[in-house]
Amino acid sequence: MSVTAAQGFTASGVAAGIKENGNPDLALVVNTGPRLAAAAVFTSNRVKAAPVLWSEQVIKGGQVSAVVLNSGGANACTGPLGFQDTHATAEKVADVLGHSAGEVVVASTGLIGVRLPMDAVLSGVDKAADALSAHGGEKAAIAIKTTDTVHKTAVATSPAGWTVGGMAKGAGMLAPGLATMLVVLTTDADLDAPGLDTALRAATRTTFDRIDSDGCMSTNDMVLLMASGACGVTPDAAEFAEAVRAVCADLARQLIGDAEGASKDIRIEVVGAATEDDAVEVGRSIARNNLLKCAIHGEDPNWGRVLSAIGTTSAAFEPDQLNVAINGVWVCKNGSVGEDRELVDMRYREVRITADLSAGSESAVIWANDLTADYVHENSAYSS
Amino acid sequence: MSVTAAQGFTASGVAAGIKENGNPDLALVVNTGPRLAAAAVFTSNRVKAAPVLWSEQVIKGGQVSAVVLNSGGANACTGPLGFQDTHATAEKVADVLGHSAGEVVVASTGLIGVRLPMDAVLSGVDKAADALSAHGGEKAAIAIKTTDTVHKTAVATSPAGWTVGGMAKGAGMLAPGLATMLVVLTTDADLDAPGLDTALRAATRTTFDRIDSDGCMSTNDMVLLMASGACGVTPDAAEFAEAVRAVCADLARQLIGDAEGASKDIRIEVVGAATEDDAVEVGRSIARNNLLKCAIHGEDPNWGRVLSAIGTTSAAFEPDQLNVAINGVWVCKNGSVGEDRELVDMRYREVRITADLSAGSESAVIWANDLTADYVHENSAYSS
């Protein structure tokens, strides 16, 4: 499982002392080759953390030998000194592993606007390097948790012999343009950086970019895919892309399932759209509607709030042709009252909303979650 | 005060039996002339309630003799039958008052997707007509409350002799493009419909359009301004516009102050923007950031969440030139750590956030509120 499911990778997770509570907080994933190909996507937030700015440069070379990830601090909005901290971390990893710092991706997550305790980070790199193991994937996944209640891993294996595995963290600030999440995927398939990039972008577009826990976009998001080529097989491009998509979808679903304070996972499917962009715009608008998210929390099939959210978009539709189903019951037909809302059973964690725009044949699925008092409690006390 | 502060208006508020709890739920405001000029702005939500669709047609004539408002039901997403209900309500008011239905504005607020109990509405119109009084403004303001904890009124009087008064309701679903709010303004100044329209649009643009309680846009918003001309004075256009703006600003501030579950009112001022549109876009992005709203609730000066919200906009700025003050303390300078966050005193209800984009000289103020467990409780139980 995790990032060491594929051959050609070692990993570790250690308690470096970055988190005050002594929990694991530093992970290292090393590509032992023979190939060092990599691709990545980053947050589209214009305020980018130092590790994002650094890693964007690294990934341009298409070659990554290692990624070092820390929880306990985002190293975002920390200015030139924060960037120096990221640089020093990459140099330290390069030094310990005998690689070039220009091939070391750095990722951080935690509170924005606070410098990292660099003594802890640098000694933690030594500790993590000592602990590297071909079975270290789980420990790495545990060390990148922040408010996550569980660590998240996934794997897909091809009959052709190659494997795609990965780990993710993230529980809040999940919104399109990615999320407060770090994801590392590894594969032992033999692929070059452009091939990885194509598969990764196709996968994230319909997975991580289509979850929305709270409408908030992070400064630190990163999804990294590294290929070791260790299994010696060059995969069929379509099969590989589907495997990457499946692992991303699995991890994305785990992120929503562990969203801060959530009691419901909401699957929003927009159908009958004129374009896929319309479907995504409508799905996101529904996903971000606080009033609807509260109603779902209260197990109230309040379809009026779905319609009011749709009405704020620029998608093609006529208000009197909108249909909405909640858990399969078409409570809104032709923009008005449909089947009896009492028929909707909302006892279970997963809630399905289907919005039919009656304007075409395109569709999209967005995953979201409800808004709860627990979310408020967790996020009003985070940094204090 | 309220809609009867100006001469030439009578009003009433009664319990018509639309609300199950027996509270006042139907208000009538009548222009007794000599003029019947009027202007209005409506929600920009594309899913519009029946009374909005009706009243948009009425206002095109520039002449309004009365407005009937009900709480206890929004009459939104109720299809052709819901529109017939609105029409029947206007006909009833016209019949009772001896006016034309084409001069009767109808406004509704409450739950979406439920038909109004028309027996109660129509008998309520009789009751309200009987209760009309030149001192009925307060009662009208009380009858339009939904989740409002207080009724909202405001007034401005010119030394030239004319008065602008008004009432408002709204506590949730407040967002630009207006809000779940109904506002009726009256004046005894002698002005025609185009003159009223100019003043009203200028006023709402910088007041009701710049409050945001929860990012949710209503299907029912309406701001109506009626002029009776009863004081016989044609006002100076600029002075009148300022008076309308002042009354709108006062009412808008009251709406935010009574927002559902809120414990903090947040004044977000964006300065140093290249354009006013940039300032508004950034202000709204900050206003809608759930994580920041939770932090403010927890009295946590979490400026990182301000920066992450700014980073999602398309406004002109450089990340390393952003400055943020909370209650006057510049906790973020040049996109990084500024003054000590411990210096920020957040004990009081009003919280001031200043975001300096360092990109020009334009500015805008957006009012918002915090996100609380009480908001979640209130909105997860609203219709059940």
UniProtKB/TrEMBL annotation, chains A, B:
Site (Cleavage): A179, T180
Record field: catalytic activity: L-glutamate + acetyl-CoA = N-acetyl-L-glutamate + CoA + H(+); N(2)-acetyl-L-ornithine + L-glutamate = N-acetyl-L-glutamate + L-ornithine
Compartments in which it is found: Cytoplasm
Keywords: Acyltransferase, Amino-acid biosynthesis, Arginine biosynthesis, Autocatalytic cleavage, Cytoplasm, Multifunctional enzyme, Transferase
Keyword Disulfide bond: no
Site (Involved in the stabilization of negative charge on the oxyanion by the formation of the oxyanion hole) residue list: T109, G110
Highest rank taxon of the organism: Bacteria
Enzyme class at the top of the EC tree: transferase
Main location: cytoplasm
Enzyme active site: T180
A family per Pfam: ArgJ
SUPFAM superfamilies associated with the record: DmpA/ArgJ-like
InterPro entries with a match to the protein in the record: Arg_biosynth_ArgJ, ArgJ-like_dom_sf, ArgJ_beta_C
Residues involved in substrate binding: T146, K169, T180, E260, N379, S384
GO molecular function: L-glutamate N-acetyltransferase activity, acting on acetyl-L-ornithine as donor
Keyword Transferase: yes
EC nos: 2.3.1.35, 2.3.1.1
Function, in words: Catalyzes two activities which are involved in the cyclic version of arginine biosynthesis: the synthesis of N-acetylglutamate from glutamate and acetyl-CoA as the acetyl donor, and of ornithine by transacetylation between N(2)-acetylornithine and glutamate.
Similarity comment: Belongs to the ArgJ family.
Record's protein name: Arginine biosynthesis bifunctional protein ArgJ
Source organism: Streptomyces luomodiensis
